Amino acid sequence: MGCCSSTEGKRDWKPLEEHSCTDIPWLIIFTLFSLFNTFHIQEGAASRLISGYDSYGNTCGRNNTKIEGVPLSGRDMKENKYVFFLDPCNLDLINRKIKSIALCVSKCPDAELKTYKDVKQFVDIHSPLKSLPVFHRCIPVDIGCYAEFAQAFVTFVSDNSVLRRVVAGVMASKEIIMLLCLLALVLSLIMMVVIRYISKVLVWILTILVIIGSIGGTGVLWWLYVDHKHALNNSTLSVFGKEVAADNVKALLVYSIGATIFTVVLLIVMFIMRKRVALTISLFHVAGKVFIHLPLLALQPFWTFICLMLFWVYWVTVLLFLGTSGTPIKNNSTGVVEYEMQGPLQFLVWYHVVGLIWISEFILAFQQMTIAGAVVTYYFTRNKSQMPVTPILSSMVRTIRYHLGTLAKGSFIITLVKIPRLILTYIHSQLKGKENACARCMLKACVCCLWCLEKCLAYLNQNAYTATAINSTSFCTSAREAFLILVENALRVAAINTVGDFVLFLGKVLIVSSTAFAGVLALNYQKDYTVWVLPLLIVCLFAYLVAHCFLSVFENVVDVLFLCFAVDTKYNDGSPGREYYMDKALMEYVENSKKMGRYGPGDGDGREMKSMVSYKMLVVFSPVCCT
After folding, report:
1. If DSSP codes are grouped into helix, strand and coil, which group holds residue 526?
2. Could you list the residue ranges that cross the membrane (predicted)?
């Protein structure tokens, strides 16, 4: 089940040649973990949540059993299907409940019951009055506290002229907002295709700006140092003033030296990586082709969002069931029955929280594996006309059939890191203003370290899923082999993750700014609007979310293509019998690299970094997998 007990040895990469089930024990564990939620529903007493119950433990609409020590329990309430609260305005916001006596009644009243006589007459007679039942609860039509709250809100909106204009502007511009959101969606789809044509320009613009900024900033600091030093030598300041000026000169000298060192190191790194930037541009070019051949990849965030929403609805429903679970206990101070979770049952809530994180990460991992499988099929199919009719659907079927256990294991590792981080974040928020500076610093450091570890493992998981899609190996074997490939190509990984991420960031900025500009022009022609702030904020926020979702898929495609390219160049050299699988754009990059002597015959990758990581170094990763 763990890496330490893995029996898979080192093997050559054989893309798309064979498929087998991976990490079956983890699939069994994940299935049992998920099925245990049915026990949650059973223990949660769904009937109490749906039908409601009175203050004496009787579930409305059914025959009940006697509760020891509660005389009014065990009543037959088949005819009384609605819960009626005597004082519905007495809300306990902290405990999220109504502090009122609840009764099971057959009808809901249509008038306010002001006296005990009114209540007794209503309970005894159950006259057929007009009712407003909502989810088997009697929702009063005329409640003073509700009316006062509504009146206060209406008064606030009416008196606040700015708020009234903003709300009116949003309501009046709803058609424009919808059109602008559609525009953001279209721009995101177009950007995913055309970014391959503008990536080269963006990369060189970025390079020029970084060089100018670093050299210019260093020059300004040295100029300020010389100017302040000259002013200090020729000044007639007081003793205190000269001390302050001398301190400023020393600080400027330190800043100038530091900026100079940073600039020199940055320029050296950029000089070393200048050729590897060309690989980033080529990968972006090929990624654009992938979306032309596999346009349904752009819909993956949409399907993932629907799956997450359905799961979250189910999760909230089970949580509500758990809220009604427990053993009925009589409260001696109030005389009413309350349900309390006792024994192992009280730990089900924490079990349920772990399920929220694990299954959510599993759904996201399924999207990554689906994208990886489709892109791997595209890359390692020499004749693109022989690709499956629906590569994405084929990838989904292959993932469901063979690799769900790998997804379960990878998502569980992320869950193990995320839970401690969330716990520490919650503790930090609860102790805000109470802990000392040292404790606060340690908590923040721990949260930051766990966040960094989570991001690193997420990136390694993504590449492990790609390796599984290529070679159909278990999670730990795939993670080990992907890790070695990434280390051998460390400088390329750095170039792709810096230059590539910045190019995608510029793409997001372009989409948001274009949508905002179109919004300003559209709203400018509507003279009825006096406040544009909220409509533009809504449009810009939606544009950013859409751009982030779609360009994140583009980023995943680039990462998958890079690992495929690294495997291709490692095990193939273009000779007969070892032909490359890569696209023409990547082939040009390899040919140019060979001309410059960076590749030798049979060197494959050229070992731009001779593996500085031996198999023993993988002990760092093995304990994680062994969990």
Report:
1. coil
2. 176-195, 202-225, 252-272, 302-322, 349-380, 502-523, 529-547
Number of domain units in the chain: 1
Q: Which of 348, 307, 292 is nearest to 325 (CA)?
A: 348
- What is the distance in angstroms between the CA of the first residue and the CA of the last residue of the chain? 9
pLDDT computed for residue 9 by the predictor = 47
Cβ atoms within 10 Å, residue 210:
15
**Two structure tokens written together for 246:** 């001398």
| Residues 61/80, Cβ–Cβ less than 8 Å | yes
Are 166 and 531 within 8 A, CB to CB? yes
Supply the mean pLDDT for the chain: 75
Distance, in Å, from the CA atom of 58 to the CA atom of 75, rounded to the nearest integer, reads: 7
Let me know if residue 177 belongs to a domain.
no
| Residue 65 counted as domain residue | yes
| 3-state secondary structure at position 102 | strand
Weakest-pLDDT range from 68-77, 86-95, 131-140, 172-181 = 86-95
Extract the tokens encoding 600: 């030798």
**Packing angle between helix 437-471 and helix 404-430, nearest 10 degrees?**
170
Question: Cβ–Cβ contacts within 10 Å for residue 493, how many?
Answer: 20
Domain region containing 135: 46-159
**Would you say residue 78 lies in a domain?**
yes
Residue 434 lies in a domain: no
> Which positions ≥6 away from 551 have C-beta within 8 Å?
188, 191, 192, 504, 507, 508
More confident residue, 604 or 311: 311
Residues 6+ apart with CB under 8 A from 67: 56, 57, 73, 74, 328, 330, 337
What residues have CB less than 8 Å from 11, skipping those under 6 apart? 471, 473
